Amino acid sequence: PYANIPGIGGTIEPMSGMSALLGYEDGPPQNSGAMYPDPVAGSYCAAALIMALRHRDRTGQGQYIDIGMMEANATFIGDALLEASANGVVRPRMGNHHPRIAPHNIYAARDGRWLALSADDDAMWRALASFIGRPDLTADPRFATMAGRKANEWTLDAIVAAWAIEQDADDAAAALVARGVVAARVRDTLDVLDHPQLRSRGLFVEVAHPETGRHPQAGVPWRFSRTPAAVTRPAPMLGEHSREVLAEYLGVTDTDYDELVALGVTGDMPPE
Q: Can 38 be counted among the known catalytic residues?
């Protein structure tokens, strides 16, 4: 029933349920702003095609592949979907909090940046409390267990926030990680482009697109042991290779192709 509704990241995020979980406790649903469904669906489709081709090469049998952006993106919130379907529990929006872990949040730092940190277990909690100069917190019965810390999360957040606002985000993150606490400075898009680890892995590549020009973009995030993978050209325009592919691989004549265009089956424009 949704076949003719435009499928883009901005519409798929709410359709898949992702937007219902994005936002703060007292606020409305939000989109991510990053258009996650577009690369997610593309990656799933590419993986399905590769598996189908391998199956064909081994058995001679073809495969029917049914991939929708909405379903592909729903895997981002698979735990919440299972929780709702199995237990009838609809997870609320939690901002940057976690269903179980506390403290788990993003805190404003002195330099105008933000510090993300998470004390995933009791050892991390003791290390965090000691590092922020509050070892007494570990003896407080409100914070003695993870369940207690979660129940008193807002009080704990205020304590950590008062410490974080006096810190340099990068220095604090490095020091916390050295003590075994999960932490990182929050990075915006330009920060990520210059991240030394991502640069050293060659994640970002310069790609020239016929409509938008040359820009950096994320390349292939994984490495294969035997088959190099790299971005070698921009994403195709709508229908850019349709005539070529249908003619070369299916033997479709120009007359038949033009008829398919007239029927809205293919072409270089959305169907009317």
A: yes
The per-residue pLDDT for range 232-268, each reduced to its tens digit, is: 889 899 999 999 999 998 899 999 999 999 988 898 8
DSSP run (H or E) holding 208: strand 204-209
Q: Which of 38, 140, 168, 170 is catalytic?
A: 38
The distance of Cα 181 from the centroid of its chain, to the nearest Å, equals 23
- Segments in the chain forming alpha helices (H): 9-16, 18-21, 37-59, 69-74, 78-87, 122-131, 146-151, 153-164, 169-178, 189-193, 196-200, 242-250, 254-262
Is pTM beyond 0.70? Reply is yes
How is residue 110 written in tokens?
């002195």
204's CB contacts (< 8 A; 6+ apart) are: 193, 198, 216, 217, 218, 219
